[in-house]
């Protein structure tokens, strides 16, 4: 029973275009969402986050959008670069029942084609 | 270094043997997590330590798995009587505050 879903296992995008990675969740108690990026043979690294009181957070080329009513968030990368090729994990925290536990999605592998 | 470190980076063992995986968190981080990533899968939560509180062991897949954290710093994940399905990358993460976890590079465990 996955609480955090990333229904696209992989995504291919041309360099310079927009990459959109999607994430859906089921637990309405999630209050904080994070995106991590993982290169092969390395641990995940934090990329960007958003609190449930916001609907958008932007950091350079990366923007995360949150639609609470739809229980959906997305990560936009503009413009996409070959170095963005990695696995992206969506994660969520439930502050009410599990303050310290973060639930990760299965990941989406992004390939940016030069 | 300033990051989370894990050792060994790779471990190959025979089925039935015990293994110990080590994690050195970022200095001062009070929370420490262990995750497992099997081939083609996401990050599976295993266990969580916070300060002197009892650890949250709810993610450990069987009683062959155990972990300890000595002195609120270094942690060791032990897998007894390893099975082939234990083969995975074991990731450690630490956290000081908020929800951002900082991950180590992982230990790739292969059970033959």
Descriptive report:
The complex is a heterodimer of chains A (114) and B (112). By secondary structure, chain A is mainly beta. Chain A has no helices and eleven strands. Chain A has strands at 4-5, 10-14, 19-25, 30-38, 45-51, 56-59, 62-67, 72-77, 86-94, 98-104, 108-113. In chain A, the strands form two sheets. In chain A, strands 2, 4, 5, 9, 10 and 11 form a six-stranded mixed sheet that branches. A five-stranded antiparallel sheet of chain A has the order 1-3-8-7-6, with no helix packed on it. In chain A, strand 6 (56-59) and strand 7 form a beta hairpin. The mean pLDDT of chain A is 92. Chain B is mainly beta and 112 residues long. Chain B has strands spanning 5-7, 10-13, 19-24, 31-37, 44-50, 65-69, 75-79, 88-95, 102-103, 107-111. In chain B, strand 6 and strand 7 form a beta hairpin. The chains are: A mainly beta (114), B mainly beta (112). The interface between A and B is medium-sized, with 21 and 23 residues.
Cα radius of gyration of chain B in angstroms: 13 Å
Mean pLDDT of chain A: 92
Which residues of chain B form runs of ≥5 with pLDDT under 50? none
**Structural class of chain B, please?**
mainly beta
How does the major sheet of chain A shape up?
6 strands, mixed
How much is the average pLDDT of chain B?
Answer: 91
Number of continuous helical runs of chain B: 0
Count of DSSP strands of chain B = 10
Could you give the count of β-strands of chain A?
A: 11
Number of H/I helices of chain A: 0
Helix content of chain A: under 10%
